[in-house]
Predict the structure.
Amino acid sequence: MEETRRVVVLEPRRLLRELVARTLREAGLEVAEATSAQELFAHLDASPFDAAVVLLDPSSEFPGLDPDARQLLCELKGFWFHVHVVVLLTRGGDALGAEARSLGAVAALRMQDLGATELLQAVEAAARGEQQLQDGGLGQLRAQEAQQRAEGMRRPELTPREWQVLRCVSAGMDNLKVAAHLGISELTVKSHMTALYRKLGVENRTELALKGRALGLQAVA
């Protein structure tokens, strides 16, 4: 039996959020809802999700995505590397979609072109780790994951917090800085480090950092 995919939907406006969430639930996906970036991050910290659906309403004041939207996508890519992001744009053209993909989204779709079937296809593909191409095709694995497969690497099963710690270590942070950056105790960081050594089969901090970089983790902003 195929595992149920878990998705979280971010949109502050209740009507839009509930419409998207209901469409996904009716297709059999397990869906959580978030009204803010902080609530989204709390969901991702609390339990594993396969994909996040983020509705963005680009402002006419900026030529591209606004700073808050860019920051959100960068944080998702950096701290929740394992969660595949689908961006739904309420306005704007291909340039905004391309920018969203450059910031880590596996799909960026315009809502005016989107029906329930297309939404479901995009989210299910993202939850499987597939990327929507600019021409609208689905099914190509992200280049990073394809490279990992070619090298015989399998993405490790880490908790959301372990991914965060790994990214910080890959950026060269010591335990004290990791603790301050993530808002946790140094003792908790050490506990996560022990788990990471075991799960990734490494013996020291340098090997752990190299493993994180090999998995494509980016530097912490």
User: Anything to note?
Assistant: The mean pLDDT is 80.
